[in-house]
What does this fold into?
Amino acid sequence: MSEGELEALKEQVEEKKKLIATIRNKPWRMQKRLSVLKEAQDFVERFEGALGKGKGRRLYAFKVMMTKVLMGLPYGSIPRKTVPRSDQATEMDLSVLLDFGVRIIADISWEMLFKYSCFCLQQGYCQYSVLFYGYYNSDRTIGVLKFRLPLSYLLTSVGIFGYSLLVVIRMMARNADVGGDGGDDADFTFSWKMFTSWDYLIGNPETADNKYASITTSFKESIVDEQENQKDENIHLRRFCRVSANVLILCSLGGSGYLIYYVVKRSQDFAKMDPSSLSWFEKNEVEFVMSLLGLVCPPLFESIAELEDYHPRIALKWQLGRIFALFLGNLYTFLFALFDEVNGKLEEELSIKNSSEWALSQYYANYSAFYNTTVVPPPNVSPADVIRGPCWETAVGQEFVKLTVSDVEVTFLTILIGDFVRAFIVRFLNYCWCWDLEAGFPSYGEFDISGNVLGLVFNQGMIWMGAFYAPGLIGINVLRLLTSMYFQCWAVMACNVPHERVFKASKSNNFYMGLLLLVLFLSILPVIYTIMTMPPSFDCGPFSGQQKMYDVVMETINQDLPAFMGTIFSYASNPGLIMPAVLLMVLAIYYLNTVSKAYQQANADLKKKMKTARDDEKNRRNNKDSTNQMMKDLEELLPNKSLLPPPFEEDTPSVSVKNSKQTKTKPGPTGKGVNVEKEVSLAAPNPRRPVTQAPVQRAGPPMNARGAHAEPGRGRGRGGPPRR
Amino acid sequence: MGNKQTTFTEEQLEAYQVTGVTRQLAPHLVPLDYTNNPDIKVPATLIVTMPELKENPFRDRIVETFSEDGQGNMSFTDFVDMFSALCEAAPRELKTIYAFKIYDFNRDSFICKEDLKKTLNKLTKGELTPEEVTLVCDKAVEEADLDGDGKLSFADFENMISKAPDFLR
It folds into this structure.
């Protein structure tokens, strides 16, 4: 074979190889693909050998031989290699593969559990356990490795906040890409809903039913969206209703805040009384009241909100905002009341401190007076008998733990009674009841997604606040989350029905992440305030004996780090340096804000451009006849053709065609088609011939029903000729 | 190599693999010997009982579209074709073409309002009122129809689907 022929053959072989590689992308039917594939493979096999690349063939044979050697006889030929017929139906499931590959071994150490879960013993043994602040000693270093406990305690607490901040903000930034609210002005809402909403991987009938229901509600939501434009009733009545609803809600918020304050004050009085004379309810009154408020107020808000008559999505956002305000108000009232208590404890501590010092000095004086020595051994009092001050940090930690626990209890009880018992009653009492319980009054509970997410957010806020005072709280919460997840999972499947109207507050969860961020910020405030201003207890906790908690850090810098670091830090904390830094950050924020606004504007402009281009193309492609119709109608307005220079004539049709303005303003209730609203403005001036256009131009604008839209039309007209 | 319960020859298996079929080779309905490429056709009524298709509202149309005779009786190659198009590895354009064919109930190469009404009713199991159905269909046509003939041609459909964010089966 000659050179040229060899080359041509090589090329063909390459082509066939490429075909084999891309054959799965071709939209052919199976038969065709198989035949083409076979042909290509034969061709390649045959001629690769001839081109001296005989390796291809040998490699293939080698491959076949190796698989035979490694895997022996092919599947299905001997009993060992065939799945038994009885199991064949199940073996097909992918889940079987998963079962083989993964086995989860949960090893729960029960001792750890009990150590950390003494719910009922908070006043007792637990108070002195690792759970609470008071357990930790104030020695600078402990143990053989000289672990700096106080320093690490402080740094860990602060580090938790920093890390949480980072995580939340990163999540939000990632979610922002998913286009938050961009879906509201999508172009093809209905078409997409129709063609892309079914999930083709559904195999379970119940899931399929749920999917049908959700698709239906999604359509209904869009229809409601459409029809919202039509509503324009009495504006004054609406405003009045809304204002009155807001007033009512503010009143209830204020009322709940006052109630909490009152209850906390009462609990302080109780604390002064003898603990054994109080009932359990009186001891845990505060937390109970808070949880109950969190239960009762949201439905109240929802019923008041019916006065307002908002679009469902907006109403949902208002509702969530109000629940958030409720929680915040309650928590902060609780915190302020707590601070009152802490101050009280501080005073008490001062008096105890004074009295214990006085007692010690008395002891020394007596001892030296009695034994007549100056070297006095320290008093040997067993640790249990030493006078100790009230440890306010532990008290605060206890309050938070109690709050969390009561929150858990209330949640469990609500689910049990509100969902399970209700479902039970509705199901079984339905047989002997006058009206249909399932469709009518009680019916089954709905699973409130937004309420549950908010609950999680609040729970996290409480943990953030309480973790500094009660490190064990985190462990308790993890346990609580694990159990409540399984419990709620069961409850949802067994007792709940899906929500009737599935309105999402935000497409990308950024709304909830924003709430979480706010809660994080508000939780940091009390803790940082405590670290910076409140003096720690003098005899308990890792910071005892210091003036302020952050003194630990100062001490470390002074003693453990080299000298120049100390000077660096003292320079860095100089207000003269900090103020300009803060100023710089403010300027950076301002700048970035401006830049992002500019991007948003550019985005909107591009979208508009795309939309007009689309409409242009639409109108260009379809309505040649209608534009001609318009032209026919308006022919008498056209100046006499003999007067017109010829080039103008051919310009006019194309220019006028391009000039159809956008026909879709808002999809109105009557669903106007594309052909109506057409405006062909003959006013489009051909920029090359201003003089001859003048008479036509003057006639143009009055014809436009909407003068405002003549502008873009003219603009487009100018773009017309070149496009031709 | 998985639970392939067929008795193909090596080459046939490779050929089918190359065309993008994954584990869906599960003709557990008709376990025959395929090495000689026999001419078997499975009726539609049997295919739609497969677990993957059972809950699908468009299962009849899917089977009809992929069968050679248009009635729903599928040979093995049709079967493999169908799942090959439905699997994740198939390219977008392929899926678009087949999607159009599936939604075109009367097979006139256009998706007219009647087709849309049928699609909608299948999707919502008749839960919407007739006015709502009409409204939705009108709006869908208005949104996607570019050439103004009141129905969706393939170009319209493709233009609309290519902009959809989650067109994934």
